[in-house]
Each structure stands twice: as structure tokens, then as C-alpha cells.
């Protein structure tokens, strides 16, 4: 079974079980506390994201990529490009760089997002967020649940990527038992 099949199997299992909402809320709070501790104790430094030229590339000031596992861009297409994007590699069944977690691109980081997709030959894009959070547009508008194909072109070469959009909880919401 390849990594994609394992991921799909786990997603289907989670959906079919309709996970215990209280347990989910507990896990969510635990992760939030752990993340705060990592940041405050500098267990995993985030120096690259705190550089003055990179601060504006972070959608949220409290969600920063760890230096040890951050995605670095090398495909430079213009003078304004840099190596920084707010993204981290996530380990999977077959290695430490199986997945990439990133924020929804800002208007000023959309090109960086697509540079990353191209450079790391991302096979599938899964969007798990809300379009609007706290009254503000979170990212480019998309429908509630969509599966489609995106064509990415650089110079004469093109690649088609599957794209899945799953509307889940807004970033600022802690899930509760009434969900």
C-alpha cells in the first residue's frame, strides 16, 4: 500500500467514525499548549520566519515554521523572490519529507506557494481551512468541498495536480462537544 492509499484510508476512517467531539477538543487544546511551549521555550527555533524581510510573509504571527524542518525554496524566478516560505515538511510512513504543511497563501505569497508546489513536485494539494475567518477573507475563494485538477505551468513545462478542498474549523475556533 503506498502513502497516498494510507492517507486516504485514514481520512475515510476518521470521517466514518465521526470522531468523539470532546476528545477532539482535548487534543486540539493539547496541541495548542504544546505549540505555545515550543515557541516560548525556543525548543524548536523559528529564526528564519522572524527575519524582518520574512515577517510579512507569515499569515499569522503565532504560526511559524520551525527552522529544522522548514521548506526552503531554491527556484528563483525574479529579483523579489527569496528562499523563505511559511511551510514545514512533515514526516510520513516513507520518510521525514513526506508532506508539506503551509498556510493559505497571502496575495503577496501566491507566487512563492506555486514555486514550492513546482519545485517539490507536490502531487496533491489538500486545503483544510475556511474561506473567511473572523470576518476576513482567509485565502482565495473556493467552494465548500471540491476535488479538481490544477494545471501549473513554468516556461514550456506543465504539471497537473489534484486539489482537494475540505472546509474544516476556522483557525481561531476551538472545537467543542456541540460540533
Automatic annotation (TrEMBL):
The keyword Hydrolase is annotated on this UniProt entry: yes
InterPro entries in UniProt: Prot-tyrosine_phosphatase-like (IPR029021), PTN12/18/22 (IPR047170), PTP_cat (IPR000242)
EC number: 3.1.3.48
Record-level GO BP terms: negative regulation of T cell activation; T cell receptor signaling pathway
Keywords for this protein: Hydrolase, Protein phosphatase
Gene Ontology MF terms: non-membrane spanning protein tyrosine phosphatase activity
Coiled coil: none
Cellular component terms (Gene Ontology): cytoplasm; nucleus
Keyword rRNA-binding found: no
Name under which the protein is recorded: protein-tyrosine-phosphatase
